[in-house]
Write a structure and sequence with these properties.
Layout: H1 5-16, E1 27-28, H2 32-45, E2 50-54, E3 64-65, E4 68-69, H3 73-76, H4 85-102, H5 109-128, H6 137-142, H7 152-161, E5 166-173, H8 174-183, E6 191-196, E7 198-200, E8 206-209, H9 219-225, E9 238-243, E10 260-267, H10 271-281, E11 284-287, H11 293-302
Parallel strand pairs: 2-5, 2-9, 5-6, 9-10, 10-11
Antiparallel strand pairs: 1-11, 3-4, 7-8
Helix pairs in contact: 4-5
Bound molecules: thymidine-5'-phosphate and magnesium ion.
Magnesium ion binds near residues 244 and 245.
Length: about 300
């Protein structure tokens, strides 16, 4: 079949930005055209100009599996080889009180911020009293039921193959996060982690948490303090950002002179209440989508163009 020139070029444009995964029913986009323009620009610049910044809990890990919530890195610590029954009860009470605040659509990040500091501080204080042994963390992870989103291997492996840095930026527990990624066999050399790391004494017993506390709504500070100085991320002005909280949007604030930023938000919980704010804030919103299909499709598109790898 032959088409007039105008139709032909429209078809070329369409096929050029065709990411079939964006047609999934789970996908919401306020400005599809803008997303497509950004995708084309990022594809043109290629893998050599790209970095990926991702949240961990409930972004790279699944939200639920077989009707059960998948544990966050903090919740993986809820194992009898690490903490006692009393600590479990107290951590659960704190979760039940503060988590609804974290995801409350009627409060601003500024309003939530001091309460998040309170939550994390109380939990870390409880954990420090438990004499947690570093040697026991791997077993706790193995027995926790934690699971990364379907298609995670493709995501991690493709980034490694193309030598695109993946910065995992988490308000969870770094030691646990690393163990989850290691046990999933995807801790490739291009993976960098910014998170709350445990500080162990000479006997391998938890005594404190290192550095500045990272919680869901102060990732901007962490980005400016840590990510901005990571040499592997320099000279890569295009960012694919993945998160599940509005606070995750500030994870790219440490990128010097960003050219193109494409944000993907997983909307896991309180869908109706939060849909509007997520669609306003993220370029692509994935509603109750437990897979990496869309990030993988986007990544395949961006990295399959003529842009040169470094
Ligand atoms: P993230 O930045 O990797 O998503 O990690 C932060 C998540 O951890 C956040 O959504 C709340 C969750 N969390 C718990 O599940 N239990 C806890 O005790 C704390 C302090 C946080
Ligand atoms: Mg998260």
């Amino acid at each position: 079949m032959t088409y007039p020139i105008a139709v032909r070029s429209a078809l070329v444009m369409w096929t050029k930005t065709n990411v079939p995964e964006l047609s999934k029913v789970s996908v919401l986009m306020k400005q599809r055209t803008k997303v497509e323009e950004t995708l084309r620009a990022m594809q043109h610049a290629g893998a050599g100009n790209l970095q990926v910044i991702s949240d961990f809990d409930m972004t790279l890990t699944r939200f639920a599996h077989c009707g059960k919530r998948v544990p966050t890195t903090h919740n993986i610590l809820d194992h009898r080889i690490l903490i006692d029954e009393d600590c479990t009860q107290k951590m659960r009470a704190l979760l039940n009180f503060y988590y609804p605040i974290e995801i409350d659509a009627s409060q601003t990040s500024e309003q939530k911020l001091p309460l998040m500091v309170e939550w994390w501080t109380k939990v870390h204080h409880l954990l420090i009293q438990q004499n947690i042994q570093r040697d026991m963390l791997a077993q706790a992870v193995r027995e926790s039921g934690v699971i990364l989103r379907d298609g995670y291997e493709v995501f991690f492996d493709r980034l490694a193959e193309l030598q695109v840095p993946l910065l995992i930026f988490s308000a969870g527990v770094g030691d646990i996060l690393e163990e989850v990624v290691r046990q999933s066999r995807v801790f490739h050399p291009n993976v960098h982690v910014i998170s709350n790391y445990m500080d162990f004494d000479d006997h391998g017993v938890l005594r404190a948490f290192k550095g500045h506390l990272i919680h869901t709504f102060n990732k901007r500070e962490g980005a400016l303090l840590h990510a901005a100085n990571l040499p592997e991320l320099q000279g890569r002005p295009n960012v694919l950002l993945l998160g599940d909280s509005l606070g995750d949007l500030t994870m790219a604030d440490g990128v010097a002179q960003p050219h193109h930023l494409l944000t993907v938000g997983f909307l896991n919980d309180q869908v109706e209440e939060r849909k509007e704010s997520y669609v306003e804030a993220f370029d692509i919103v994935l509603v109750k989508d437990e897979t990496m299909e869309v990030p993988n499709g986007v990544l395949k598109f961006i990295t399959s163009g003529g842009g040169h790898a470094k």
